[in-house]
Amino acid sequence: MRGVWTTADVRSAEQRLLAVTPEGALMRRAAYGVSVRAAALLTRYAGRVAGTRVVLVAGAGNNGGDALWAGYFLRRRGVAVTAVLLRPDSTHPEGLAALRRAGGRTGSAESVDVAGADLVIDGVVGISARGPLRPDAEAVFARVSAPVLAVDLPSGVDPDTGAVTGPAVRATATVTFGALKPVHVLNPQDCGDTTLVDIGLGGELGEPELRQLDAADVAAAWPLPGPADDKYTQGVTGVAAGSATYPGAAVLAAAAAVRATAGMVRYAGPAADVVRSHWPEVVATGSITDAGRVQAWVVGPGIGTGRQGRDQLAYALAQGVPVCADADAITLIAAHPDVLDARDPATPLLLTPHDGEFARLTGSAPGPDRVGAVRRAARRLGAVVLLKGHRTLVAEPGGRVVVNRPRGAWLATAGSGDVLSGVIGALLASGLEPWLAAAVGADVHARAGELAARGAPTSASGVLAAIPDAIRQARALAA
Ligand SMILES: NC(=O)C1=CN([C@@H]2O[C@H](COP(=O)(O)OP(=O)(O)OC[C@H]3O[C@@H](n4cnc5c(N)ncnc54)[C@H](O)[C@@H]3O)[C@@H](O)[C@H]2O)[C@@H](O)CC1
Ligand SMILES: Nc1ncnc2c1ncn2[C@@H]1O[C@H](COP(=O)(O)OP(=O)(O)O)[C@@H](O)[C@H]1O
Ligand SMILES: [K+]
Fold first, then answer.
1. Is 176 in the pocket of ligand 2 (CB under 6 A)?
2. 404 lines ligand 2 (CB under 6 A)
3. What sequence ranges are listed for the domain YjeF N-terminal (predicted)?
């Protein structure tokens, strides 16, 4: 798992490291990393490094210092470097001296030919950023047509929430140092492709604020049958979804569970005939009380918010197995919190709301601080909460939060949430801890969306069909 740290954590870790590191060494390490990435971008976009033109936009702090030192390293590779100094009187002195020593030039926002650059390096502001780009920097970036490499983070974007509240840099790529910060995972659109340069901060960092799964985490967690397994030992998934009028949710959720793991899936509900006709391997019954033993229940998609749905939910919650409550089950819990009384407190509950369901469940919309909102909800409900969206978040009551890596927006299609709940149910039944089941399920769901789409719109059925390839992809990347 990759960790993500707040700017406050990074700053205090940096202070400890600075105290035991020779003066200027960390900045040179950071800046060298920026120059290497800059050279790669120049090769890609201009076809060469020597002879190209790079413009640095340097603010008043150490972020500007990084950019100036990166300019120094690029000069040594034959690049013509010019720095726009936004605050000439408080520019980083050593960085400026190094750039000048290497033959770099400086100028004002008006005098430098920003439009003619092959690459622009954004050193306006880093982890001490507050608020959007100020008008002087905004005017410079308005003239940029070249790719932009952001130093540490795109200036104008909030480092801890990724929020954009005014003018901000939209980077082609970002080079960050020591640790990923929330902006990099919460606002990947404005960071572009982010690279992390190791400046030796690792040992100084404590518990991360956020976590992100790698393919290796997904591959390690995904349940596969072993020689001693049979259809029961891998965990039987129970799906209580759909209705006679709306059988689609039942078919999608049950099928997703079938696609996600080997073993067995039971379906219980009014769409039993339809589910059976599409997926003969599903053991389907009309009533949840006749379903037989399962190791986890998925309950909610399409069950309705009336008496029948409420009874199904209460029954699932009373079976002493983990429950993934989705869609109508969430609305039912919001309207009748007493339904949770049926739950054995020792059995895990996982809720998978979208923003509207989250508002119903907690009384307020997630707002701009989605991480804080989902963390508070998980703590208050004593449940794992997966907040759906472009960057799906998964929080557990203890405070750990995973942020899922978006792979396009292909999953914004009707029924894709039903597919997600089926996948998560299968992982819960296999015995994965709920927080990991939700995070790993969201990862494979996003991979399946991307594989199904391959550049053109897809549908929930397409996402469903791509689940095996998504699992194969994660396993191949991890191998
Ligand atoms: N501390 C360290 O050990 C290291 C720090 N490094 C760099 O240092 C940066 C942090 O440097 P600083 O703490 O000096 O601060 P910054 O360079 O992030 O910001 C400098 C100043 O800009 C002003 N500012 C805030 N918001 C602004 C806005 N929206 N528009 C314009 N100006 C704004 C503030 O007065 C702030 O103090 C990191 O992001 C990283 O790039 C790297 O050199 C690696 C080592
Ligand atoms: N813009 C987006 N980018 C990436 N994923 C998205 C986007 N919009 C929605 N999704 C994902 O699609 C799924 C939609 O689920 P849900 O809202 O329950 O829809 P439905 O009820 O139609 O199944 C969720 O997994 C969500 O995270
Ligand atoms: K920056």
1. no
2. no
3. 10-207
